[in-house]
Amino acid sequence: MFEQVKLNYDYSDLEPAIDALTVETHYAKHHAAYTKNLNSFAEKAGVIDQDIEDLLGSLDAIQDAALRTAIRNNGGGFYNHNLYFSTISPNGGGEPGGTIGTAIDKAFGSFAAFKEQISALAMGQFGSGWAWLETASDGTLSISNSLNQDNPISLGTGKKPLVAIDVWEHAYYLKYKNLRADYVQALFDIIDWKIVDENYKKRVG
């Protein structure tokens, strides 16, 4: 059974970066629907007990093409939003320290350079999709973007996402309308780098 990540903040706590109505609609409607649909399709496919990363990394093992597509879309939506909502918080913002801060400096030269590059990917994503900070198994960081609810795992890159920038319109349109760049900029005020750092250290052992 796949479960939505539990929020450790109220819907209004991310203001002014993201308004309460957007957070509530995004989490309680969109994310909840992906979770419900994933459980339904995963049960039909007999994969309900799999780990979500293992499931998304082995989609070709699902023989039924329609179920494979449904699990790719809804499983991606479930996984991507779990990461998104668990790595933003009222305590976020600023520049990352710790292991992740050092790794970002090594990979991109500076946090400012990283922020500029991943923001460009997020803003340049045509239509719905995501931008990612991701890690290889050896801890090397990189960035990428993807369409719809795909992610580095479902795309078979061998990398694991650490930061998810959601650029589906439902993530920002109530507050920012067509100003995606303003939303992406504001998101950096709530990315919780301490949580990202913890996840990174788990990834690389």
Structure description:
This protein is mainly α and about 200 residues long. It folds into 2 domains: about 20-85, Fe,Mn superoxide dismutase (SOD) domain (Helix Hairpins, Orthogonal Bundle); about 100-205, minor pseudopilin epsh fold, CATH 3.55.40. Helices cover about 50% and strands about 10% of the residues. It is built from 8 helices and 3 strands. The chain has helices at about 20-45, 50-55, 65-85, 100-110, 110-125, 175, 180-185, 195-205; strands at about 130-135, 140-145, 160-165. It has a 3-stranded antiparallel beta sheet with strand order 2-1-3. β1 (about 130-135) and β2 form a beta hairpin. The protein starts with 19 loop residues before the first helix and ends with a helix.
Short description:
By secondary structure, this protein is mainly alpha-helical. It has two domains: 19-86, Helix Hairpins; 98-204, Iron/manganese superoxide dismutase, C-terminal domain (minor pseudopilin epsh fold, 3-Layer(bab) Sandwich).
The strand count comes to 3
Q: Domains counted in the coordinates: how many?
A: 2
How far apart, in Å, are the first and last alpha carbons? 27 Å
Please work out how many helical segments DSSP would assign: 8
Q: How much helix, percentage-wise, in residues?
A: 40-55%
The biggest sheet amounts to:
3 strands, antiparallel
CATH architecture of the largest domain: 3-Layer(bab) Sandwich
Taken as a percent bin, the fraction of beta residues is: 5-15%
Global geometry: globular
CATH C-level class of the largest domain is Alpha Beta
Going across the biggest sheet, name each strand in turn: 2-1-3
Question: What is the CATH topology of the largest domain?
Answer: minor pseudopilin epsh fold
Q: What is the CATH homologous superfamily assignment of the largest domain?
A: Iron/manganese superoxide dismutase, C-terminal domain
Please compute the radius of gyration using only Cα atoms. Answer: 16 Å
Compute the average pLDDT: 97
Give the class from helix and strand content and strand pairing: mainly alpha
SSE succession = HHHHHEEEHHH
